[in-house]
Design a protein that fits this description.
alpha+beta; Immunoglobulin-like; 2 domains; five-stranded antiparallel sheet; elongated
């Protein structure tokens, strides 16, 4: 039986401990660039333009979930930002939180720090002064405790210095005045690589539903003749097949080939209209033409996918591709190899671009 990438991801993440989850991600998840690195209770990674992220990992089954996220663009002027996230079950959202480092008030004097709240997620954005103080304290401190009315969470600092040292190294900051950890007197920091510019092409007017289903059905029948095991074909999957016009009598077809509890894997093809025998599989990063929980927006020419490691969507891989008129080109990719309650918007970005 055909098994989708999401199921393979889930198999790898079940029971994965820190440092092993990343190695068990499917190949496409690591194809966008160098994979994130594990540093005890922290993880760090950089994207194609050397913007780097360092992230603390909450304990398994932590309640509430609390974590720190540091992000910094490359280049001499790249300024770091540090946020604390706290996810809690509150009826009245907190306005402030209080922090302690290994039991001692932080910042000095124990002043409450303001947070913004979106649903169950509270965010504290550190000032430059408090960020510098926390990074310096992390050399010796092992735990940051955050308290809001009715709940207390903790963030491990074990591995944080190593993670930040690694990001400094990736950006060429070691021994410079801008380094987070190992500062020096040099001011020579490499410039950031150029951000790829991708000109997406919107698709022509959509096929009507009947025509789209007919195009997909013809391709499904053709694929079954060539390789009966390439795509499961029960009725519930067939209903999920889709097709869109791409112009010049080309059709984008997504065949729903495998379903799990929370993941639907689809195989993507471009075929000449009414000529399924000439269909060509799309080639996505890492090889293969499958994406999980994917959707195509013809108005923007963009395919997005979200491969969940488990049902709540706190681990896995997400990204997208843009139609340029001749091919689908990768536009973004992020991932999280540990299922620890971290929101998908905070996953480590490994590839980014901008539209034109």
């Amino acid at each position: 039986m055909r098994r989708n990438a999401g199921n393979r991801l889930l198999d790898g993440l079940k029971g994965a401990t820190l440092g092993t989850g990343l190695a068990l991600l499917p190949a496409f998840a690591l194809a966008a660039g160098p994979e994130p690195k594990s540093f005890r209770d922290w993880m760090a990674g950089c994207d194609n333009i050397k913007t780097c992220t360092a992230l603390s990992l909450p304990a398994e089954a932590a309640d509430p979930v609390a974590y720190l996220r540091l992000e910094r663009p490359a280049g001499p002027d790249g300024a770091a930002t540090l946020m604390l996230r706290l996810r809690g079950d509150w009826k009245t959202p907190p306005r402030t939180v209080q922090l302690r480092l290994d039991g001692a008030a932080f910042p000095a004097g124990g002043k409450p720090l303001p947070v913004t709240v979106d649903a169950d997620l509270a965010t504290l954005t550190f000032s430059a002064e408090d960020m510098s103080a926390l990074i310096e304290a992390a050399r010796k401190a092992t735990k940051l405790t955050v308290t809001a009315p009715g709940l207390t969470g903790s963030v491990s600092l074990v591995g944080s210095v190593a993670a930040m040292l690694w990001t400094d190294e990736q950006q060429g900051r070691l021994g410079t005045t801008t380094a987070l950890v190992r500062k020096g007197t040099s001011t020579a920091v490499p410039p950031a690589p150029a951000l790829p510019v991708i000109a997406a092409v919107p698709a022509p007017p959509m096929l009507d539903m009947k025509a789209g289903k007919q195009q997909a059905a013809s391709l499904r029948a053709e694929r079954k003749k060539k390789d009966p095991d390439s795509c499961e074909d029960d009725a519930t999957l067939v209903k999920q097949d889709e097709a869109w016009a791409l112009g010049n009598k080309r059709i984008l077809v997504a065949l729903a080939c495998s379903r799990g509890a929370y993941n639907l894997s689809s195989s993507f093809f471009i075929m000449p209209e009414n000529e399924p025998a000439k269909a060509t599989p799309l080639g996505f990063a890492g090889g293969g033409n499958d994406l999980t929980n994917a959707s195509f927006d013809p108005r923007t020419g963009h395919i997005a996918f979200f491969d969940k490691g488990r049902g709540i969507g706190d681990c896995g891989a997400a990204g997208g591709y843009a139609w340029t008129g001749t091919a689908f080109v990768q536009t973004e990719f992020s991932m999280m190899g540990e299922c620890r309650g971290i929101a998908s918007e905070d996953w480590i970005t490994l590839y980014r671009s901008k539209g034109k």
